[in-house]
Amino acid sequence: MFRDADSRAAVNELDLEPGGLRGYLKPRMGSIGKPSSPVVAAPSAANPITCRPAVFADCGRIARLICVAGGGLYEFLLGDLIPFVHPANFLTIATASAGYAMSYRNCRVAIDAKLDAVIGMANVFPTDLLKQESLMMLPFSRRNHIRALVDLHDWGSMFVNALAVSELYRCRGIGGQLLDWAEDLAKQEGFDRLSLHVWADNTTALNFYKARGFIQLAVGNIPYHSRLRHVGGSILMQKKIGSRYRCSGSRGCPRAPK
């Protein structure tokens, strides 16, 4: 049923909660209901922030932050399809499995060292891995509504699928540290550019990425919807970077020049 032992362990844990997921076979991407931002204590000099590769135990927190980063996308895709199932349940399964692009193995997390709490994350992987993803489990009307976003990618780039920091920890350079990691990872894997999507009306995120050297490539026209309340569509952004060409060939990365 599931792709590895980690996925089965995540299901067993989630089944203890209301709306457990036993028997649901395809939690590929999506969410139900509005996610709550992770609640953590306010940062201070006594609460240093560190970054590290994500581990399996981080999956639940990563899932909640991916929901936040999506800006309502996952709620739109799977809202009301399975009553009483929280979006984090679906995304925790995906992050727990090595078979999904949003696996914790493709994530880096920011940690409040004193609290040992995940307060930020970045999910980064080769864009071409998205060609293996499927939305066929979703209602046609929902798939069709976001078709412009799904089809709009900078194929051959390294993709920043999600980047989020808990609200109390923002404006402290944590997002910049996570983006630095994404850029360094892209270089190590042999990519010469990063790409990402950002909602056109998310001016804070737009300004952040522009300040970091990203430029606008194209816009996917996503109509306003009462359950996906964005105007202006989804902007595809790109940043050119230098490449170190250490690609192993196992992650869909480009071939080094001769």
Task: Give a summary of the structure in a few sentences.
With 258 residues, the protein is an alpha+beta fold. Helix content is 28%, strand content 19%. The chain has one domain: 3-Layer(aba) Sandwich (Aminopeptidase), CATH 3.40.630.
Order of helices and strands: HEHHHEEHHEHEHEE
Name of the CATH superfamily: Gcn5-related N-acetyltransferase (GNAT)
Amount of helix:
25-40%
User: Helical region count?
Assistant: 8
State the low-pLDDT regions, or none: 1-43
Write up what this structure looks like:
The chain has 258 residues and is α+β, with helices and mostly antiparallel strands. It has one domain (5-34, 47-240): Gcn5-related N-acetyltransferase (GNAT) (Aminopeptidase, 3-Layer(aba) Sandwich). It is 28% helix and 19% strand. The chain contains 8 helices and 7 strands. The protein has helices spanning 5-14, 59-70, 73-78, 87-96, 140-145, 147-151, 174-188, 203-211; strands spanning 49-53, 107-112, 117-126, 158-165, 193-199, 215-220, 234-240. The protein has a 7-stranded mixed sheet, with helices on both faces. A hairpin with a 4-residue loop joins strand 2 (107-112) and strand 3. It is globular and about 45 Å long. The termini are far apart.
